[in-house]
Amino acid sequence: MGEMEQLRKEAESLKDQITAARKAVADATLPDTVSSTAVVGRVQLKTRKTLRGHLAKIYAMHWATDAKLCVSASQDGKLIVWDTLTTNKVNAIPLKSSWVMTCAYAPSGNMVACGGLDNMCSIYNLKGKDGNVKVMRELAAHTGYLSCCRFLSDSEIITSSGDCTCLLWDIETGTQKTTFAGHLGDCMSLAVPGDFKTFVSGACDFTAKLWDIRDSNCTHTFSGHESDVNAIAFFPNGNAVITGSDDATCKLFDLRSDQELITYQDSSIMCGVTSIAPSLSGRLILAGYDDFNVNIWDSLKAERVGVLAGHDNRVSCIGVSTDGMACCTGSWDSFLPSFSFKGQDNVMRLCKQNKQQYL
Amino acid sequence: MDEMDLPQMKKEVESLKYQLAFKREKSSKTVTDLVKWIEEVVPEDPFLNPELMKNNPWVEKGKCIIL
């Protein structure tokens, strides 16, 4: 038997053992555990602000930790930092490359980052001495597009790429510290939990992986999706992960028991999930879809309890603020000239709880 | 797996060994803990509690501001 064939057999055997180990701890299901819990009442969120200003498709947005500012990236070649309360643009940062696919706000609020088809992650200092926002670092090493980036601190950032890897960077020196390799398809998204010790990545190999940042090992591989995993987020308590896929479903995976707990799907939903975010408690999951809607799911009962309709094109990104008060959606809404009064620019909509109707 | 070359395959096997070694807890415990955590935080979740929205900074409070 050739070495390759031997390794293949060993891999299959290990996968079977992992399946058995998962089965061995599967002594309870989520539906059984919440069988006597009522579904939450219908959730209605009202659009409170519309952030207008981008001239082309909005690909990404990320809230600052102060829950007031956020950053958005558009293929009009701009990163805009918004004050969501006033809808003022705090910064409009012109990008070298307009083919941007992701953006991130540093937890400190001092920096933002973005990247895309230029294969680079560019870091911008928002708090420069002269008030101008300048490129601080250009992190180049990926051999594919930058799909997502998330700061761990002002000195470290994690990126995911179409080259199937994720990288941990030292921002000071502009060099890569750690490579996370293992996905067999483009990495589409990543998420970091509150303790910044691990991260999860979703990829076009239909899996999600959990990685230990310090030792670079993959500790969990979650399969089950039947197509690309486009969106991924940590559950607020850090012990579960939610994913959204081109297979039109979202899934909840439990880290401690290493199981898929439930799938959020409906026969009437046939388009891919582009973005996902949990509410503060995790009881609600907000997911953006290719059919221009955001569906709100009761995470425990796996029922749809609300819809945010209002975009005129694919919802590309969604984020819930850290205090749980607002959710912001960004979209590929069609461009209309800025002099048109009633036009819908490429908009970011801020939605907050309006009222709740109990059925 | 068919697209992997030998070094990648070796790394895949190492990774699978590492993943197998993870100490899985019984889902009867972990799912109960998860549900409990969610239910404890639900009363603080603005999207589920209209009363918390009284302090909603995005709602226009009045039409006039005294300068």
From TrEMBL, chain A:
UniProt KW keywords: Repeat, Transducer, WD repeat
One Gene Ontology term from the biological process aspect of the record: signal transduction
Pfam family, one: WD40_Gbeta
Xref: SMART domains: WD40
WD repeat residues: 51-92, 139-179, 180-221, 222-263
Family under the similarity heading: Belongs to the WD repeat G protein beta family.
Record protein name field: Guanine nucleotide-binding protein G(I)/G(S)/G(T) subunit beta-3-like
Lineage: Eukaryota, Metazoa, Chordata, Craniata, Vertebrata
TrEMBL record, chain B:
Pfam family, one: G-gamma
GO cellular component, one term: heterotrimeric G-protein complex
Tagged with keyword Cell membrane: yes
Topology versus the membrane: Lipid-anchor
Taxonomic superkingdom: Eukaryota
Key words of the record: Cell membrane, Lipoprotein, Membrane, Transducer
Any single GO BP term: sensory perception of taste
Described function: Guanine nucleotide-binding proteins (G proteins) are involved as a modulator or transducer in various transmembrane signaling systems. The beta and gamma chains are required for the GTPase activity, for replacement of GDP by GTP, and for G protein-effector interaction.
Subunit field text: G proteins are composed of 3 units; alpha, beta and gamma.
Protein name, UniProt field: Guanine nucleotide-binding protein subunit gamma
Source organism of this protein record: Denticeps clupeoides
Gene (UniProt): GNG13
